[in-house]
Amino acid sequence: METRGLTIRFGGHVAVNNVSCRFSPGTLTAIVGPNGAGKTTYFNLVSGQLRASAGEVLVEGEDVTNLAPSARAHRGLGRAFQLTNLFPQLTALENVRLAVQSRADAGWSLFKVWNSRRDLIEKAEAILERVRLADKRHVAPKTLSHGDQRKLEVALLIAMEPKVFMFDEPTAGMSVDEVPTVLELIHDIKQRGDATVLLVEHKMDVVRSLADRIVVLHNGTLVADGDPATVIASPVVQEAYLGVEVRP
Ligand SMILES: Nc1ncnc2c1ncn2[C@@H]1O[C@H](COP(=O)(O)OP(=O)(O)OP(=O)(O)O)[C@@H](O)[C@H]1O
Predict the structure, then answer these.
(1) Average pLDDT over residues 117-124
(2) 40 lines ligand 1 (CB under 6 A)
(3) Does the domain spanning 1-76+163-248 belong to CATH 2.40.50.140?
(4) What is the pLDDT of residue 247?
């Protein structure tokens, strides 16, 4: 996935400013920066929730800039959303079943398709197992703990088999004991295949433990890009992101 000169203006304010960046399969890139730096807006531009004022988004060389979010999702851009795409009246397993069916172009009927496609059932169950939710398969999403809801979001994303996984602060609001599992799942996604993983994250310990590369945004502009140790040590990050005053 690649963005070229990606820019959005809100009135006179440039929230994302001419960001050109290429992300490779098998790599987890953390996008960091202070509050209001433009990280979530950049994600919105990539996934299509916002339309760019200028620039392009490319997936495997194809320009998707003018496509709606659903069409971008079909091209392989997968973004984890907080339960907005869940069916609350269905169980965790049924939700994953529907996502698996949708990916297999097997339609949206839960019963008709389900009885004839044992392979899809097994796939949904394997995904729930992979995200450590097998024992909660028959539970309604809203009764799950916050951490388990996040795991279910990851399950739905895995079911869609995207080329690019996008996580925006995946551990936000989670209790301390729930964090490691979700981080493990994200690590596992990167390890398993050749997925491109993008992570917006404030917590530097999380970034350090997961990222192969760090991109820093500041006032909408890309100000640093490289391997974690180099980027974290760079004066621009010490000053702009960590708030350390750097003197010559
Ligand atoms: N729809 C909008 N209309 C006007 N301004 C917006 C809109 N969306 C974002 N902005 C502005 O764009 C800038 C970037 O916001 P954004 O939420 O992308 O930052 P962020 O880096 O994700 O911050 P945080 O870490 O606090 O989530 C901010 O100044 C914000 O106020």
Answers:
(1) 87
(2) yes
(3) no
(4) 47
The pTM for the full model equals 0.90
Q: Whose CA is nearest to atom 6 of ligand 1?
A: 10
Distance 129 CA to ligand 1 centre (A): 36
The ipTM, to two decimals, is: 0.95
Q: What b/e readout covers 162-188, taking b as 16+ CB neighbours within 10 angstroms?
A: bbbbbbbbbbeebeeebbebbbebbee
Q: Is 6 helix (H, G, I), strand (E, B) or coil?
A: strand
Q: Which atom of ligand 1 is nearest to the CA of 42?
A: 18
For residue 49, the CA-to-ligand 1 centroid distance in Å is 13
Residues 6+ apart with CB under 8 A from 135: none
Per-residue buried b or exposed e for 85-117, using 16+ beta carbons within 10 Å of the residue's own CB: bbeeeeebbbbbbbbbbebeebeeeeeebbeeb
Asked if 1 contacts 196 with a C-beta cutoff of 8 angstroms, the reply is yes
User: Where does CATH 3.40.50.300 sit in the chain?
Assistant: 1-76+163-248
- The larger pLDDT score, comparing residue 210 to residue 244, is at 210
Give the position of tokens 């690649």: 2
CA of 35 to the centre of ligand 1 (A): 8
Pocket test for ligand 1, best of 7, 13, 41, 202 (most atoms within 8 A of CB): 41
